[in-house]
Amino acid sequence: MKIPAIKKLVETQTIESLREAEEQLINEETPAFEIEGADEGEKLTHVFGAIWILNHMGDHNTDFKTALREFTQKVRVSIS
């Protein structure tokens, strides 16, 4: 997971386009826009992260940094 890749998606894509890309990656298709990542799994992680952050920003009226911090905390907890 690379934070700059997630940030780029948050800044350049809509939730709808990210959901389409998620579906395309799951179906082993090529998304309509570039997603950084070493493989499909990492690309999907970046898309999931961007969707979560955009939803969190909208639901809680927070900025990107706050939503990103909460997302990375959730990831850390799930790993440990």
TrEMBL record:
What would be one Pfam family of this protein? DUF6952
Report the InterPro entries cross-referenced here.
Answer: DUF6952
Query: Domain of life of the organism in this record?
Result: Bacteria
Q: What is this protein called?
A: DinB-like domain-containing protein
Q: Which organism is it from?
A: Rufibacter sediminis
